[in-house]
Amino acid sequence: MELLFERRRILLLFLALTSTVLLTIITPYYYYRKSHVQYVLWETSTSTSTSVSPSVSPESVHPRKIAGSGRMCNAFSGEWVPNPNAPYYTNESCWAIHEHQNCRKYGRPDAEFLKWRWKPNDCELPLFNAAQFLEILRGKSLAFVGDSVARNHMQSLMCFLNRVTYPVDVSHTSDEKYTRWSYTSHSFTLAFFLSQFLVKAVEADQNGPTNTGLFNLLLDEPDGWSTQISEFDYVIVSAGHWFFRPMIFSEKKQVVGCHFCLRENIKDLTKYYGFRMAFRTAFKALNGLNGFKGVIFLRTFAPSHFEGGDWNNGGNCLRRMPLRNNETRLDGFNLELYMIQMEEFRRAEKEGRERGMKYRLMDITEAMLLRPDGHPSIYGHWPNENVTLYNDCVHWCLPGPIDTFNDFLLHMLMMERRGRTADSISGRVY
After folding, report:
1. Helix, strand, or coil here: 152?
2. Trichome birefringence-like C-terminal domain spans which residues (predicted)?
3. Angle at Cα 90 formed by Cα 117 and Cα 318, nearest 5°?
4. In a 3-state reduction of DSSP, which class is residue 201?
5. What is the fold of 39-45+58-417?
6. β-strand 141-146 against 234-237: which pairing, if any?
7. Given 59, 77, 199, 287, which residue has the most CB atoms within 10 angstroms?
8. CA torsion 217→219→220→225, rounded to 10°?
């Protein structure tokens, strides 16, 4: 009998030690995953439709609160899966495509990059429905603030909306950096504010150390968009790729450092410092808006895919298939920029919440990391044109992978409309 008890005691000790070891291994990974993703709650119907026709039911996927019977699903973590029905517009049917992203027009020979959709690991992400989007935004306004990738996103949205109705140009100026469009049939206004750095910036030297310009950034002064944004119901903020250029940083009218400016007596604070402070200033400006009752979206960094050299040194993006999520990982400067955005977003969301502000996170970084096949590369101009453009591995072909940004946007707006904000898309990390 004593021998039996001794064996049981040894077995229990072994199980306890095994559990401890497993928890030690798993727990850090678990919390790393939880701290870097945005969870969305879903209750998936038994017959989810993937059609983008106006007949799609908005109830095909239902967001639920944590207290309900829904299960947690990170909509921004998954894989690209084949979608033979895509694309849902063409470069010929959409007039809004910027020339440099009109890949089919300029001879891109393959079409496989068009035939994919984003599939979250544990749920479905409905494809964009233009009629549904316009109905949700009836009587509302939406503004994009950011660089040319933000414009790339907006033009993708316009291509989708063209399937239902066409807008009227109601821009306040002829400057293409600031455009407004009115979808009069739905009293919906769409606007774009070009602001590559989000803060005030002046090109001090057209050439600079790398022949890409040298920019003076006033890191504590938001750009001109900040005085025009309070009237909008939804604001999508993004930035990133311009911070690789040489910059001199000023705060309180005094130079505090730079990024690769190669100037004597100016400390190199790196691009990461400028990136962080620019987002901090932008969020501070948004939190300080008087009477703003809208919703602020941060669209996270979309990685470029230069291979075989830097963007200005022969690099190109020639892949023709998406990557699987076990074939690459977010690292290096991509990870650093992403983490800075996440940290500044959490900071702003916490401060804004106390003032009644609403922040939402559109975390597209993982999805776009897996799409090295979706860039224009050399197909942004005719081969015989005398242009000084580099291979474009930053922007996205239209139609193309960037269309998925609008799948995310529509679904987040659907949840916003239903009031599923506290547990599903608040931007808080669980």
Report:
1. helix
2. 125-412
3. 60
4. strand
5. Rossmann fold (3.40.50)
6. parallel
7. 199
8. 70
